[in-house]
Amino acid sequence: MAQTFSGSAVPTIDLSVFATESPQQIPHEERLKVGQSLVETLHRFGFIKIIGHGFPKRDITEALAWTKRLFDLPLEEKMKAPHPPGPMPHRGYSSIGKEKVYSQSDVENHKKSGNVGQSLRNVSDFKESYEIGHEQDPVQQNIWLPEDVLPGYRAYMTALYDRLLGVSKTILEAIAIGLSLNADEYTECMKLISDRSCQLRLLHYPEVTKNKLETELLARLPAHNDWGTMTLLFQDDNGGLELKDPHSGVFISAKPEEGALVLNVGDMLQRFTNDYFVSALHQVAVPDPDAVPESGIPPRYSIPFFAVCEFSHTIATLDRFITPENPQKYDPVRFDEYGAKISQYQYQEKDK
User: What confidence tens digit (pLDDT) does each residue in 193-206 have?
Assistant: First the structure.
């Protein structure tokens, strides 16, 4: 196991003892030790970098290359798989500025405006995205480009979803072992990831000129929490992701590390553990124009995978996390009802 933390960097852990093809050959004590280290770090920060996760560097490079290939297409080609108006289904291509990411504190701050959705959009998000789910998702069906627009894209992304689903389950198993959950608790924990309800997202943040930064108000990805169980993120060498240390209040740069993914806790894992794990606030910030070179900000590509439970699943806090010193903070909640409330301003009809 390798784990590092400098105080100003995101800590890193090696989970190769869980990603091995022959886990039965790894002593339980060794897996327990690594799982406990993962749990302790997520408890402290809500985020971590992971290596040895079973998705090798060459495959990360290939996935990012497909992502770039997609966004290099002309707009009229990408618009052959348009994201529908409104937040559901959350599938297909969203052009620059269509989606608005926000935190719940942002919503509270804009309530006096009378039109929260419009007020949140006073500063647009300068990014484009493509959302993909499981082919058998009963709630949200995929919206694919025609095969001749980008041959092989659908097949590759369908396989990528399955692989990242496997990585997510491996990480959740490591968390469950690190928490020393009993059999019933383990079963409930593993329900926090559904085979058919997760989401694969491809993101492109176009380059931004220094002049645009100096003359326009724009955002890349405002500070927010993810409302699923946890999020895996692969990013290119330009980086840009920042995560807030819940203790210092300082945003820490998740600088690219070869072969590493960034994992952050989401709202459902926070509720499941009664704040033992806290959902990580994170962003892709726009730098101060004075600190930007004349060449501006380079483009950025990233691939988050949102590991979530079934939409109809009700998340309840495990009894072990409820004590007289730490009473229950959350009532049980259906995931789809929670998500509908959290994402209600993400897309609007006027954005068609």
Answer: 999 999 999 999 99
